[in-house]
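Re-run requested by the PI after the first attempt was lost when the workstation crashed. Everything re-entered from the original request form. Ligand of interest: 5-hydroxymethyl-3,4-dihydroxypiperidine.
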Amino acid sequence: MSGGLGFPEGFLWGASTSAYQVEGAVDADGRGESIWDRFCRRPGAVEGGDTGETACDHYRRWRSDLDLLGELNLNAYRFSLAWPRLFPDGDGPANRAGFDHYDRLIDELLARGVTPLVTLYHWDLPQALQDRGGWRSRAVADCFARYADACFAAYGDRVRHWVTINEPWIVGVLGHLLGLHAPGEKDLRAAVTVMHHLLLAHGRAVQALRARRGEGRAGVAFSLFPNYPASDAPADREASWGSDGYVNRWFLDPVHGRGYPADMRRRYERRIGPLDMVRGGDTDIIAAGSDFIGVNFYTSRVMRAAPGAEPFGWEVAPTETGTPVTDTGWAIVPQTLTDLLLRLRADYGDIDVYITENGAVYSDGPGADGAVHDERRTRFLHEHLAAAHRAIDAGVPVRGYFHWSLLDNFEWAMGYAPRFGLVHVDYPSQRRIVKDSGRHYARVAAANALTPPGPAPRSRDA
Ligand code: IFM
């Protein structure tokens, strides 16, 4: 550590994307259909009828997008492999053109001195597997293990960092309980089954990675939300602890060797009966030995009791007046990231942590001078890096930070309106403009230290 607000030597400074959100080119080079291609065609499923058909055209523009990483001085890039590009039918013959695409991308990253952090599953399940039951089917966890192993075989000589599954809670709850994400189901039992199979898939993939005896390291990127009670009332404290079980412990505990938390098991059993999707030996597979915790952090939850509220009789309390929020209304309380990181070490030990996502929606676009003065994102970024730094100072082994996102992109059911990028994308022309926040981040990454957000030099078109 270089002292002051310096970060540890070798710290990974990165940005994240995911295939369906940026690649476009959904019919190119033999790619198969994904559940998101299908879901986007469902009337009313996505704001404005948007789809990932073109997105940021990253599949074709990836080289110039890597130039942007250079402009931001980043030494790491997190992206996901599109399963349907590699195995168009999910589990059938491999698609050489798909494998070649990521081969080139990985080689070019390494040639530029950028460490790839590769996500295997960021929500674009091959539709052919959905037709066989999707993640509700235990067999899909086996398909995932074969897919993961093929990726380890193809890229494991160059890729050391693997995120197996991105945000199993979101896949379960938004995709299978609330129907807001693909495949659009609304059934609590399906959600719990899916979440279990995702964790099983993670464990099976880790076993496959270990069997190769290489240097690869793997972890899950969890969507983590620190929870706080709205008051000292026992019912609110119970709501906060229960919510922590629902969104955090249900995933962290089994993956990190503690098994499913008993309080949450009871809650689910009361609602859906026996959890017979969890078979003997599963929890050992799930705990097969992750090498790091991936933290996707956006906001925290202040919880209060709400008898009758689905699914467990609690709700998120309204954000207190005066608390800053993003343009999607998510409360910004950076200290809660420090709390979360400290808690991970207290509960799960000295395991490495990567902040695999952190970011905010701000809709600022180019001004009259052609630059994007997204002062609020710069502040958000700066305050969250300071929060991570406090945890590092207290001894939490945070090894890297990946901002969500490199580019404005397809924000799932919300379409293209929410903008998360360090780089602005003008979708009709596909022109990129590095935002002021990106320039601030570039200075921090170059210094490996948190420098004060200064006046940004004029942005130029990429
Ligand atoms: O865009 C998503 C990403 O795909 C998963 N994590 C949260 C981001 C912002 O909502």
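Saved to the shared folder this time. Confidence is low (pLDDT under 50) at residues 456-462.
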